[in-house]
Design a protein that fits this description.
By secondary structure, this protein is α/β, with parallel strands linked by helices. The protein is built from twelve helices and 16 strands.
Length: 380
């Protein structure tokens, strides 16, 4: 047969598949009703194994793995559809409605904001992009920022969450599951690192370079120009600049921001020393109480899945079925457990979309560990 004729036959087969798919999903709907009436669970693993085995045999040896894949996807879609039909608005829906801000609500222009580091830190620069007139309190570490917000000492906190070059800020991710808070906005900040020292110091004088571990990682190529130089990790890039300014040393340099050079009266030895010019860090703004402002189009969650084959695929497929774009999937080990993980997800959607609301209600009721971190928008 000619190619066009083959394609026509495939189109006819596809139409037949769609007709059967519609029939199968209609039957799934009826099954969901029967299960609900009789108090039966949506998942029936024995039934699924039985069907997979039968379909694999009917497909034949060559097509067996493809048949298994096809029916595994069908089962997942059917379960997701049945769950959506049977899930009723519950505590999570009430939680979201309580967090909904009025349609004319504006993001705050001021407030007491917790940041890690000292004046000139990148967290402070991110804070200045988020708020027009913030009252900033500085803390020595990220956990202290969470504690300040949770205790009510500060209204908001600003924390780095990931960098385009060095990846996720694992220390912050590990704290996300420990404290109660809500992400209310995020910001993408272009991070431009500078090598700086006290006035009069030359590049040839440098014997030690200090900065935060993530900044050092983002500028690793720079160290090829300083063979044998000592690399020192400090709590913050701004702390590094402050340390150089107060040290009195002529052999010590810091990797920090342009603002810090001016703030601490340091001379810039080299500009833009990061490995990648497109170096961005995402910062989240957290608050004690949940608040979803108008225009929010990003959602962050924490979920756990069972430690069984295909469980993560089953989770991801729920988003795929609804056409939702997962922009972040991060796994972190659960403390005290053997190879058990929590998954941190970011995806693009409004919490008020009915299908998304139903999905969140489903996830909150069917996952042993579920946390809604926030529905928010991101600025740049």
């Amino acid at each position: 047969m000619e190619l066009e004729e083959l394609r026509q036959r495939i189109d006819e087969a596809d139409s037949g598949i769609i007709a059967l798919f519609r029939e199968r999903m209609a039957l799934s709907k009826d099954v969901a009703q029967v299960k609900t009436e009789n108090g039966l669970p949506i998942l029936n693993k024995a039934r699924e194994r039985e069907v997979l085995l039968r379909m694999s045999r009917e497909a034949g040896e060559e097509l067996e793995p493809y048949a298994r894949m096809l029916f595994s996807i069908l089962f997942e879609m059917s379960r997701s559809y049945q769950t959506r039909l049977t899930v009723k608005p519950g505590k999570f829906s009430e939680y979201l409605k309580a967090a909904q801000m009025p349609i004319d609500a504006m993001f705050p222009v001021s407030g007491v904001v917790a940041c890690q580091g000292v004046e000139g830190a990148y967290s402070q620069l991110a804070c200045d992009k988020l708020f027009a007139a913030p009252d900033i309190m500085y803390f020595s570490n990220w956990e202290a920022v969470f504690q300040a917000v949770q205790s009510g000492l500060c209204e908001f906190g600003v924390l780095p969450i990931e960098n385009s070059s060095s990846g996720s800020v694992n220390g912050v991710y590990d704290l996300l599951n420990k404290y109660e808070f809500s992400i209310i906005r995020s910001v993408r900040l272009h991070v431009d690192h500078f090598l700086m020292a006290r006035p009069g110091v030359k590049l040839s004088d440098i014997r030690e370079i200090c900065s935060h571990e993530y900044a050092l990682d983002q500028c690793s190529n720079l160290f090829d120009q300083f063979p044998g130089v000592k690399i020192t990790t400090v709590k913050n890039t701004a702390v590094a600049a402050q340390m150089v300014a107060e040290s009195g040393r002529t052999d010590l340099a810091a990797i920090s921001s342009h603002d810090c050079a001016a703030l601490y009266n340091l001379s810039i030895l080299k500009e833009s020393v990061q490995n990648n010019a497109n170096n961005y860090t995402r910062f989240i703004c957290i608050a004690r109480k949940p608040a979803v402002y108008p225009g929010s189009n990003k959602i962050s969650l924490i979920l756990s899945v069972s430690h069984t084959p295909g469980s993560l695929y089953g989770l991801i497929s729920k988003f795929s079925v609804l056409g939702l774009n997962l922009t972040k999937l991060e796994s972190r080990p659960i403390s005290g457990s053997a190879f058990e993980f929590l998954f941190y997800l970011d995806f693009e959607a409004s919490v008020w979309t009915p299908a998304v609301m139903e999905l969140l209600e489903e996830l909150s009721g069917t996952n042993p560990h579920f946390a809604f971190l926030g529905g928010y928008s991101e600025i740049s």
